[in-house]
Write a structure and sequence with these properties.
The complex is a heterodimer of chains A (139) and B (292). Chain A contains two helices and nine strands; from the N terminus they run E-E-E-E-E-E-E-E-E-H-H. With 139 residues, chain A is of the alpha+beta class. Chain A folds into two domains: 85 residues, F0F1 ATP synthase delta/epsilon subunit, N-terminal (ATP Synthase, domain 1); 43 residues. In chain A, helix 1 runs antiparallel to helix 2. In chain B, 63% of the residues lie in helices and 13% in strands. Chain B is elongated. Classes of the chains: A alpha+beta (139), B alpha/beta (292). Chains A and B meet through strand 2, strand 4, strand 7 and helix 2 of A and helix 1, helix 4, strand 6 and helix 6 of B.
């Protein structure tokens, strides 16, 4: 029985990770979902959150932690694919900038109370900002 | 008949022009490679998205999403028109703009969302100075695509447009580009059925578990699909533009060479004629004076 599975994390502009993982945990709209090798075929919508994985980099097990925006996760017999708009590492996060984003999105959301679609869009932005803060330990 | 000096000036100016077109040709060749690399980076996302869509289509029965309802009848069509920011690429921009205009005529009116300065200027000249517009080359392309997709889909949800159609240049080969018109929204159940029938011989993938439900995941996926389709059209426009520019600049350089050759011959003829004329004058003058 294989102890790892191929794991790919892609955004529209880049391949963030492409390799093998022992475990991938992402936040779906239904809560956290962990994928181990030989998971049943599975397709879920993801909320913005912190994605964690035990991955193999150059043969050594490492921990991968990223703040991801909304997207999708698909587990198939040939591996797991995560598709998100954005994925950022700890070192790429500027806390002051994220706080500003959060503030701006909160205000835009207040102004969009009566448009369900717009409200949900800003909610996503808020949750992504919060995920970035959580990853840097500021929340 | 133009004088030797006139011809020499023209040749000099042509040589300058030729140097510029040659430089632009080389720049375009380098930029094609970069544009193609960007397209390549987007490929894994495109593949994964298509795969998910395919799995979802097989699983859903009906979806209550605005993108899957017919648009408001009587409203104008929404045309997302993608062009380049710059010219000097033959008929590249005007072809795609003409395709959009033809579509608007067939639909009896349209609201434009333009990406690219050439499309912006053309639509402004059509008498729509304040339509929604973005530049192709400034800022992150994915952000521009998202903004355009949101603007168009908001208008669609509010019944201001009846459908969203994407008009952009398609890169067929390095030598040829063709405007392409794709209807993106609404996606009707019948489109799904034909896609499903087309997949009759496809591999059965077994039961897939959806969280929370295929309908929910699909309704999340559709807006991303719209954004990404516009994004990849922008990337393709970039690559196709530089390919068109490469061809246009190659032709311009060749034409300049041909013209320089012709003018050089004309100049040599003119110079020779002048020398002959002068000689004849001297000889005639000498004869008249009776010099031995």
């Amino acid at each position: 029985m294989p102890s790892t599975l191929p794991f790919r994390l892609v955004t529209p502009t880049q391949i963030v990770f492409d390799g093998d993982a022992e475990l991938v945990i992402a936040v779906t709209t239904e809560g956290e979902e962990g994928i181990l090798p030989r998971h049943a075929p599975f397709l879920a919508a993801l909320k913005p959150g912190v994605l964690r994985g035990n991955v193999l980099a150059d043969g050594a097990a490492t921990r991968l932690e990223l703040a991801t925006s909304d997207g999708f996760m698909q587990a198939l017999p040939d591996g797991v694919t995560v598709l998100v708009d954005e994925a950022v590492r700890f070192e790429e996060i500027d806390v002051a900038e994220v706080r500003e984003e959060l503030q701006a999105a909160t205000e835009r959301q207040k102004a969009a109370q009566d448009d369900r679609e717009l409200y949900a869009r800003e909610q996503t932005a808020i949750e992504f900002a919060n995920a970035k803060l959580r990853l840097t330990g500021h929340r | 008949m133009p004088s030797v000096r006139d011809l020499r000036d023209r040749i000099r100016s042509l040589k300058n022009t030729q140097q510029i077109t040659k430089a632009m040709k080389q720049v375009a060749a380098a930029k094609i490679r970069r544009a193609e690399a960007a397209q390549k980076r987007a490929r894994p996302y495109a593949d994964a998205l298509a795969q998910m869509l395919h799995d979802l289509i097989g699983a859903v029965s009906s979806v209550d999403h605005p993108f899957m309802q017919p648009g408001k009848s009587g409203a104008p069509a929404g045309i997302v028109l993608v062009s380049a920011d710059k010219g000097l690429a033959g008929a590249f921009n005007s072809n795609v703009i003409h395709a959009a205009e033809a579509l608007a005529r067939r639909q009896g009116g349209a609201r434009y969302y333009t990406i690219g300065l050439k499309a912006r200027n053309a639509v402004r000249r059509m008498g729509m100075p304040d339509h929604a517009t973005w530049a192709l080359g400034s800022g992150e392309k994915i952000d521009t695509a998202r903004a355009a997709a949101r603007r168009a889909s908001d208008d669609f949800r509010h019944g201001e447009i009846s459908e969203i159609v994407l008009v952009s240049q398609q890169l067929i080969t390095m030598m040829s580009q063709r405007p392409q018109t794709r209807k993106l929204i609404p996606i009707l159940a019948s489109d799904f059925e034909s896609a499903r029938d087309g997949e009759a011989g496809g591999r059965p993938r077994g039961a897939i578990e959806f969280a929370p439900s295929p309908e929910f995941v699909l309704s999340r996926l559709l807006p991303k699909y719209l954004e990404f389709t516009i994004y990849s059209a922008m990337l393709e426009t970039d690559a196709a533009f530089f390919a068109a520019q490469l061809v246009a600049m190659t032709n311009a350089t060749d034409n300049a060479s041909k013209l320089i050759d012709e003018l050089t011959i004309a100049m040599n003829n003119a110079r020779q004629a002048a020398i002959t004329k002068e000689l004849l004058e001297i000889v005639a003058g000498a004869e008249a004076l009776g010099v031995e």
